[in-house]
Amino acid sequence: MNSVNLRHPYHLVDPSPWPILGGFAAFVFASGLIFSFKHGPAILVLGLISVLLVTFGWFRDITREGLGGKHTTKVQSGLMLGVLLFLGSEVLLFISFFWAYFHSSLSPDIVLGGVWPPIGIVSVDPWSIPLLGSIILLSSGATCTVAHNALINGNKDLAVATMFATVVLGFLFVGLQATEYYVSEFSIADSIFGTVFYMTTGLHGTHVIIGAIFLTVMLVRMVRDQFTTHHHLGLEFSLWYWHMVDVIWLFVFLTYYWWGSTYSNANDARHHLHYYPLIIGVLIINYRKYMY
Hints:
- The chain is built from ten helices and no strands.
- It has two domains: about 1-70, Helix Hairpins; about 70-290, Four Helix Bundle (Hemerythrin (Met), subunit A) (Up-down Bundle), CATH 1.20.120.80.
- By secondary structure, it is mainly alpha-helical.
- It has helices at about 1-5, 20-40, 40-65, 75-105, 130-150, 155-185, 190-225, 235-260, 265-270, 275-290.
- It comes from Monoblepharella sp. JEL15.
- It is a multi-pass membrane protein.
- This is Cytochrome c oxidase subunit 3.
């Protein structure tokens, strides 16, 4: 049987407990989120810990398979396709929140005063903390690209240094986001504006935290010489994820902080929507250069 397996490039995985355990952990986490509204966060914390443990175990096994030579070119292609589909689903998730935002802002309901932001809402100044956060996050996208190119060229010291800088910038962005929430003059309960704002920026912040942890793991593996100039699939995936977070934040900043804020004329800002296709085109051109 083993001799037959060696005649094809596919990786036949061994029986694994992680799929069923992952489903159970996700169920406990979702149930805990519901129960936390009336019965405290105990089940929610248990579910979160379970999800983290399953994620660690599953990723550890995948890493071991790669180090064991089981990630052939064909297997890598399949993993890449899976990650791309996952990233696509993440983008669609954010599109749903943008859809809700534009649905409410382009034609404000009379309950909101017929204006956007609603009467009584003082939005976050886009040229203060959000602008600084944007500079930091987009800079992290540049540093991680430098790290990738340095690894390909065999410059480990530069790769480690710039990857460390990327991780620091990522967590610094999270700190700025928390500070912004603390000083904000409106809450998630303040009309549809507050709800969609905090849901979208909170979801993005969660992705930044996950991405920063992902990059931290890749940094540790890089220090331990687990990557070569030709085989560093985990690092590639972490960079794809991080660049997705960068691009999504750009649209969050332009839409939630600038276009729909009290610090710009909303009626005039709506006429600037035609810049969005141009921005998308520039991003596609730049990331095609990165990918190829």
